[in-house]
Structure formats: structure tokens, C-alpha cells
Amino acid sequence: MASLNVGNLGDYLREQRRSAQLSLRQLAEAAGVSNPYLSQIERGLRKPSAEVLQQVAKALRISAETLYVRAGILDEQERDELETRAVILADPSINERQKQVLLQIYDSFRKENAAEQQAQQAQQVEQQAQQQAADRPAPAQPTDTQH
User: Fold this and answer.
1) Of 76 and 57, the one with more pLDDT
2) What's the rounded Cα separation, in Å, for the pair 45 and 51?
């Protein structure tokens, strides 16, 4: 069976399992998945669902988002946003209203930065187009061959 490209998910899971000092069988039982299936995930032969990854992450006591990124389900930027939101929402030192205000501010900064980034990219594309136009040789002038 050919190995699926799951972004080193299997290697990462094996490393985490060993760090937790769990056998494959123990982790499979704790996560509620079969031992052979977990073995196939570790060897890169199976791509697990988000639900299975969540169960495995819970059993290993690690972030499910990290596993989602490794499996290609979630990109790094989305994970960072989710983790930031989770930290804000989990903070016991601020009340619910304050948490919502912080999240609104966070969202507004992200939107502002995304708009700036899009404007910069559009400007770069325009500059490249202008440079390419300037680099093109001028069209040849028709020559008068009749004297």
C-alpha cells in the first residue's frame, strides 16, 4: 500500500505517543480507535478524520489543532487564530464582556491587516506589470523601402 502524504503526521504521533510513554495499544484504547488503524496512521498508510485526530489528541493531552495542521486539515494561520481565541476565552481573570470586546478588537486588527496585505499585493502586481511593459522592446517602425 502506498504511503499517503499526511505531512509527517504519523511520525509526529509516534513521537508524541512515545513521549507520553504509551504503547500503540494503550493509545488506541484511550483514543477509542483500533490498534491496527492507529498503526496504519503512524505508518502514513491512512489519513484519519478530524474526529479521530481529536480523540487521539485528547488521549495524548495535546492540541487537536496541531494534529489538524499536520494532517493538512487546517493551515498554520487558522490554527494560530483558533489558539489565540481559545486563550482569550479560557482566561479566568477577565469577564465574558471583556472577552467579547477583546475578540472584536482582535478581529478588527486581523481584517485591517488582511486589507493592507491585499492592497500591497495589488500594488506589487501593478508594479510588475508596469516593469514588464517597460522592458518590452518598442514595436519596430515600418521602414520606407521605396525611394
Assistant:
1) 57
2) 18
Judged on CB neighbours under 10 Å (0-12, 13-18, 19+), 29 is: middle
Q: H-type helices in 5-140, by residue range?
A: 9-19, 24-31, 35-42, 50-60, 64-71, 76-90, 96-135
C-alpha cell at 137: 522592446
Q: ∠ CA 32-33-34 to the nearest 5 degrees?
A: 130
Residue with cell 504503547: 23
Closest CA to 52 of 62, 66, 37: 37
Provide the grid cell at 73: 486539515
Cell numbers that stand for 134 in this block: 517597460
Q: Which residues contact 7 (CB under 8 A, 6 or more apart)?
A: 69, 70, 71, 72
The pTM for the full model equals 0.53
pLDDT for the residue 5: 41
Question: What count of other Cβ atoms lies within 10 Å of the Cβ of residue 14?
Answer: 18
